[in-house]
Specification:
0% strand; globular; 192 residues; mainly alpha
């Protein structure tokens, strides 16, 4: 939704478009590669990957390519429509982050990095997520990714949208996620 608002891509999109200029991969495939790199960084920070981590990394990139190939989201013709689509995309991102994190089967790579930093730094989600978004935006811009007013709006509001969804849903930011070894023990009936 933030892409098709046509007001500037979200910061991770700016980075991914910048990287597509240097790689022979689709936008979704670059998202998967970036996800893998961020997954490793999140793991180093103490947020090990789980089933949700790998599923998020793979399927987000996969569905990005499908949505773009099939033209499922039309670009609005009016500025009001574009802003509504952009803000809707930001709110959906916040709600979706809560919904897939709440089962605690592993955070996606970007959210794993965010949660690892939240736990390490003891800072609120909106501050950590906002800082990550701004850093990714700068890196993407330096690589030649497209930046617009929507990019800045997304960079500075995504953290608040995630924080709001967490607050409304009662998400415990300190809750432990089930990594792969814990999931295997659980499925065998040995507990997490």
């Amino acid at each position: 939704m933030t892409l098709y608002a046509d007001l500037g891509m979200a910061p991770w999109g700016v980075l991914q478009v910048g990287l597509t200029k240097y790689m022979f991969l689709t936008f979704g495939q670059v998202s998967q590669v970036v996800g893998l790199m961020v997954l490793v960084l999140g793991w180093v920070l103490g947020f090990p990957p789980g089933l949700g981590t790998v599923m998020n990394m793979y399927f987000i990139g996969y569905f990005m390519d499908l949505i773009m190939a099939w033209g499922l989201i039309p670009t609005p013709r009016s500025l009001t429509g574009q802003l509504a689509l952009l803000m809707g995309g930001i709110l959906v991102l916040g709600a979706a982050s809560y919904m897939y994190l709440n089962p605690r089967l592993g955070a996606g790579p970007r959210d794993g990095l965010m949660m690892g930093l939240v736990q390490r730094l003891g800072r609120p989600v909106y501050q950590v997520r906002g800082a990550i978004e701004v850093m990714v935006l700068v890196l993407g811009y330096l690589l030649g990714g497209p930046v617009g007013v929507g990019t800045l709006i997304t960079a500075f509001t995504t953290g608040y949208a995630v924080q709001l969804a967490f607050r409304l849903g009662g998400y415990d930011k300190d809750a432990k996620h089930m990594d792969f070894p814990s999931l295997i023990r659980y499925l065998r009936g040995s507990g997490p």
